[in-house]
Amino acid sequence: MSTGKLAGRVAIITGSGGGLGAECARVLASHGASIAVVDINGDAAESVAESLRSAGSQALGIRTDVSSEEDVHAMVARVKERFGRIDVLHNNAAVLDAEQRQRDRDLCNLDMAAWDRAIAVNLRGAVLCTKHVVPVMLEQSKGSVIFATSGLGMQGDMSLSGYATSKAALMMLPKLVAAQYGKRGIRGNAVQIGLAPQHPLPDALLDIMRDNHCTPELGTPRQIADVVAFLASDESSFVTGTTLVADGGFSSHTPSLVEMRKLFEQMGRTGM
Ligand SMILES: NC(=O)c1ccc[n+]([C@@H]2O[C@H](COP(=O)([O-])OP(=O)(O)OC[C@H]3O[C@@H](n4cnc5c(N)ncnc54)[C@H](O)[C@@H]3O)[C@@H](O)[C@H]2O)c1
């Protein structure tokens, strides 16, 4: 019997067939939670669930398209039936594959099908999962709902217009959860994630991003999963309605910081 900080808790993690979601599944399981590994890729979800079971945790893989209310309704019913309760919902799923990223461009060159997909999966999906999970949490008078957001939802950039808009809207959802259900024991928070690359990216882009983080390196899945585990657990019981920034300082500095750092280096100044 686990004595971890999530012992006896049940967590649904969407988009956990790979990437950061799979790491969140491993870390929350290591703290004692039973995990519903939810992904549109059913084989990937089952494979992560199987690896958790092999490591001694309780886990269920479920193929779900979070943009479909029918799928989400059935998924929540299955988790409730299997585990009897739901304590944590981590709305992590997002459509981020290479084809989507090539079509979700600047506003003048935006493929509206890609825009619709970004909003449907990233935003509608999180709303649907919250809509169907919170009633279960209310029966228990306790629950933590977490939303995965991004710096792109806070600051303008060159591309990914649909993605950025969906992530900006997601920052409103923890406030709604907190305001609407907080008095009945439900907390809502978002994590604004810096770059913890899960897809191949050009070296030049990685260099720009690394220069703009205030940490020696870009993020790792474990660093993000540790923050999710904090928000999932009672360690954060007085934290609700907020967006916790875990981005290596990416959004914390002046726009001129990178150029200033280079200038200081040229001048032989240290401490930058
Ligand atoms: N990795 C980063 O650097 C980074 C930075 C900022 C924010 N984020 C956010 O973190 C989350 C995870 O990102 P990632 O890098 O691991 O992405 P990823 O592409 O590796 O994983 C996303 C997962 O979501 C699943 N998915 C896609 N559409 C779905 C649908 N309709 N229904 C259910 N599942 C679906 C995919 O199959 C995949 O397993 C996302 O919300 C992303 O926006 C990531």
Explain what you see.
This protein is an alpha/beta fold and 272 residues long. It has a single domain, classed as Rossmann fold, CATH 3.40.50. 46% of the residues lie in helices and 15% in strands. The protein has helices at 19-30, 42-54, 69-83, 98-103, 112-140, 161-170, 173-181, 203-212, 221-232, 257-266, and strands at residues 10-14, 34-39, 59-63, 88-91, 143-150, 186-193, 242-246. It starts with 9 loop residues before the first strand and ends in a 6-residue tail after the last helix. The structure holds nicotinamide-adenine-dinucleotide. Nicotinamide-adenine-dinucleotide binds at residues 14-15, 17-21, 39-41, 44, 64-67, 92-96, 121, 125, 148, 150, 193, 195-198.
Radius of gyration: 19 Å
**Total DSSP E strands:** 7
The CATH class name reads Alpha Beta
Strand order of the largest sheet: 3-2-1-4-5-6-7
> What is the beta-strand fraction?
15-25%
Contiguous helical run count: 10
| Shape call | globular
Note the main sheet: 7 strands, parallel
Contiguous runs where pLDDT drops below 50 for at least 5 residues: none
Number of domains: 1
Assigned CATH architecture: 3-Layer(aba) Sandwich
The average pLDDT is: 96
Small molecules in complex: nicotinamide-adenine-dinucleotide
> How much helical structure, as a percent, in the residues?
40-55%
Provide the structure class: alpha/beta
- Name of the CATH superfamily: NAD(P)-binding Rossmann-like Domain
Taking the alpha carbons of the first and last residues, their distance comes to 48 Å
Order of helices and strands: EHEHEHEHHEHHEHHEH
**What is the CATH third-level topology name?**
Rossmann fold
